[in-house]
């Protein structure tokens, strides 16, 4: 009799344990095998290669959203469901961190380089030629939201050219739109990222020159992991670590970025 009662009690405890285990398991969010990466427009081509290499290595898929760093920051603050923010500067990732929307402080993953680019084959790009009457429109990314636009304005001012060409400037929403102005020839010339002209899609199109990086504040490009409620951050952390790996650094260098050893 006592043995039967004991067995029933043991079975009861086992059933309770199973029920608790199922409830706890049900409360956990399943690990997502895809991460959403918000990337600055200058990183459009490089981030594609990096994310493809990451997926091949880990099996984790990457969804890319490309826009200006300023716009992406506003979206993140408003609650956009991104896991990683790959910015064109450190200002915006730091803003995310100060708003307590990041898992940890951002880090610089690369330094961008500014170029002057034209689709007109007969044209040899130079800062001096921007004042010529043959140049009617100069494409530039919006300096209010795009770090490469800020760098271009700074360079023009330091070179004492800004006041002479201010009325010629045509502002793109991001580097992507600025590139459209240049490639469509709606602007005779424009400022863009070196990573764009070195991409497979744009390589050997038009002519460009690398601008003196001493004439503008270093473009420190930072990345940060976004804090997501009730989401497993394992894959986000894996990508963040991969972004600073030797393999990713080599890809960044191929696109003209300067990276720290």
TrEMBL record:
Keyword Metal-binding carried by entry: yes
CDD domains: PBP2_AvModA
A Gene Ontology molecular function term of the record: metal ion binding
Chain sites annotated for binding molybdate: 69, 175
Family to which this protein belongs: Belongs to the bacterial solute-binding protein ModA family.
Organism of this sequence: Aquimarina amphilecti
Entry annotated with the keyword Metal-binding: yes
Protein name: Molybdate transport system substrate-binding protein
Record-linked NCBIfam families: modA
